[in-house]
């Protein structure tokens, strides 16, 4: 799945399949300007920053069990969001510090370090990487991903795929080759 935020005409948090199909709103009320998003892949939670409502919130992948982690004026200066273990990590763009927020007790906020310039934060650690299983976009015997001549996108499950073409090409009638 692909998760993303939008604060155009109607602010929301959405998800869809990797090929863009099955687009679903998971949060569409009491939300104004969601600017950063992070996923807890193990427990299947979506966290986001809303800088207009000055809050950090969470829902499950279906948009249920919504909770506010923390609120306050300091939120409007946050950018980027990452989840690791019991904490959320973000950047305070006002003073360029990395913040750690306990995701179970949002009042426990600590500044960890200062940076020269940052707008995004990521945690890279082996435990944060999902185990890879066999999937529909694996290279076929001729080396083409999922048998697609250009781009293979996972669809509704890891067993299904959709072929797409690079700009300037169109998908052939076989659903795999680009012309």
From TrEMBL:
Record Gene3D superfamilies: TolB, C-terminal domain
GO BP annotations listed: canonical Wnt signaling pathway
Gene Ontology molecular functions: Wnt receptor activity; Wnt-protein binding
GO CC term, one of those recorded: plasma membrane
Coiled-coil annotated spans: none
InterPro entries the record matches: 6-blade_b-propeller_TolB-like (IPR011042), Cueball_EGF_LRP_Nidogen (IPR050778), LDLR_classB_rpt (IPR000033)
LDL-receptor class B repeat ranges per the UniProt record: 1-43
Protein name: LRP1B protein
Source organism per UniProt: Chloropsis hardwickii
